[in-house]
Amino acid sequence: MADDDLEIDLDDLQRRMDGAMTALRHEFASLRTGRASASMLDPIMVDAYGAATPINQVGTVNVPEPRMVTINVWDKSLVNKVEKAIMESGLGINPQTNGTIIMLPIPELNEERRKELTKVAAQYAEQARVAVRNVRRDGMEQLKKAKGAGMSEDDQKVWHDEIQELTDKHIAEIDKALDNKQHEIMQV
């Protein structure tokens, strides 16, 4: 059997763990922290020209102040549809329309809501940790197959340590991202 049949695909494991981090960052971006962010509108789709379209494709999204998001809708006929999509999105924001500009004032979060959001952030982080551990488990299964195919114990130890190091690095990144997000949420 050739030596490359005994190789573990670390690049694939790295890519999949990075994917878990990317998903976590996307989840964190959608959490409303009382501070305006254009990314909070990313999941909202508008019925434009018969198709579900992201808001940033029907207008320009800006954050002129820390607690205000504005959308300059390009087509006047879509202003009401954009407004309706925002109200139905569950963001809890009441849009204010001025011509083709929709203003979204971000309300202050109370202490109780902040604590709820930190718990939600922790759940997102735990989901990311589980995803990283699942990738680690897949890597360890590849290692077991390689052992059955004749990989030496020294090589197994090297690969095991590399997979574990990759896992530990990603778990630490997740923990750091969670700490940052919880700190951001609790800031008044």
UniProtKB/TrEMBL annotation:
InterPro entries (alphabetical): Ribosome_recyc_fac, Ribosome_recyc_fac_dom, RRF_sf
Compartments (UniProt record): Cytoplasm
GO cellular component: cytosol
One example GO MF annotation: ribosomal large subunit binding
Keywords of this entry: Cytoplasm, Protein biosynthesis
One GO BP annotation of this record: cytoplasmic translational termination
Coiled-coil regions listed: none
Domain Ribosome recycling factor stretches: 24-186
One Pfam family hit: RRF
UniProt similarity note: Belongs to the RRF family.
Function: Responsible for the release of ribosomes from messenger RNA at the termination of protein biosynthesis. May increase the efficiency of translation by recycling ribosomes from one round of translation to another.
Protein name as catalogued: Ribosome-recycling factor
Organism of provenance: Rhodovulum marinum
Gene transcribed to yield this protein: frr
